[in-house]
Specification:
Distance between the termini: 44 Å
Number of strands: 3
Order of helices and strands: EEEH
Number of domains: 1
CATH architecture: 2-Layer Sandwich
Oligomer: single chain
Structural class: alpha+beta
Strand order of the largest sheet: 1-2-3
Radius of gyration: 14 Å
Helix content: 25-40%
């Protein structure tokens, strides 16, 4: 299996993780970074089992992800 890019967000009440380049909604969560990552990996495996390999994009258009902060009036 090819590597999947995962976004992990830190929130006041824990961590949320989600993959890029997968069709459908897949989310993991946990009290720690490691727990969220493990949870999203499990969710990805389940998602692929249920919907098949077709949910994986052949070539993810995302090469890198950045965080930017802007003010919108």
């Amino acid at each position: 299996m090819k590597p999947i890019k995962i976004i992990v967000e830190k929130h006041p009440d824990g961590y949320v993780a989600y993959p890029l380049g997968i069709k459908g909604v897949v989310v993991g969560e946990g009290d720690t970074y490691e727990q969220a990552l493990a949870d999203v990996k499990s969710a990805i495996r389940c998602h692929i089992e249920v919907f098949g390999q077709a949910v994986l994009e052949d070539e993810s258009p995302v090469q890198e992800a950045f965080i930017a902060e802007v003010e919108v009036a």
